[in-house]
Amino acid sequence: MAEKKYEPASDRYSKSVGYRYCGKSGLQLPLLSLGLWHNFGDVDDALEAEKMIQYAFDQGMTHFDLANNYGTPFGSAEINFGKILKKYFSNHRDEMIISTKAGHEMWEGPYGDGGSRKYMIASLEQSLKRLQLEYVDIFYSHRFDPHTPIEETMGALSDMVKQGKALYVGISKYPIEKAYEAYQILRANGTPCFINQDRYHIFDRHIEQQVLPLAQKNGNGFIAFSPLAQGILSDKYLNGIPENSRAAHSYGFLQKNQITPELIGKVKELNMLAAKRGQTLAQMALAWCLRDEQVNSVIIGTSSVKQLQDNIVALKNLTFTDDELWRIGELGA
Fold first, then answer.
1. pTM above 0.85, yes or no
2. What is the pLDDT of residue 239?
3. Which overall architecture, per CATH, does domain 19-231+280-320 show?
4. Rounded distance, CA 243 to CA 274, Å?
């Protein structure tokens, strides 16, 4: 019997995850966006990666977030996503928001890192080839480069829009004073900053004081990454450090010494609060990030369709009582 060919669900928008306008633009983003930092490289399960992209799109998750160096090896997430697009979604490109970034190390030598015009433009050209696309919807400067004049980096972003290789541009992880400069330069160039991407979760609320107010004043949107704090805000570490978890490895951003008894104590209390809300800890953590509509979307990273399904359930309850918010704020401090 021939294998049944995948076709996108016809009711994907009627059962969709919901959308918010990105800042003051006319473009809407799904409340949950799928990030491809992990689990979409050459060392990962290719079939599960296909299924996750398919399931996400079937649920109305239209935004897929990449970067030039995502995947192992670097670039493999873009290559694999490009293959999936060509195989299953060639007739649905206009229903997708595809973003990529440049700013971290991508190739050896002096021109494969940073924010220079040469690197930014070369990187996007390479990303488009890997993705098999003529343009991306959003192109980010992935981080501020102190060795490159900000006018040079923003000029490269603006030119990519004017050349039709990106529809919108954004910044990620910029210090607040540099974000302000970026906004001013991009607006003067006629290509206003569309979106700012930064870390946001219960244990890291730094964006609330200056980043969100500045984005609102400038009119650009905001999208959060790492809403589960590298898995800390899930049930993964409630009973120790699992053998195959991120914290168990000697490499990566999450290290064993960060999983302290004090932290686990807070996570356990948050887990009990989530249970009272009828949610898992991960679901509550996602809902908490989305409680403020200024957060236009939250990027989730999943390793399986089951995990993706569980995350989407978070959207069924985005409302918090004042007591819940106070307690979460106290535990997150």
1. yes
2. 73
3. Alpha-Beta Barrel (3.20)
4. 25
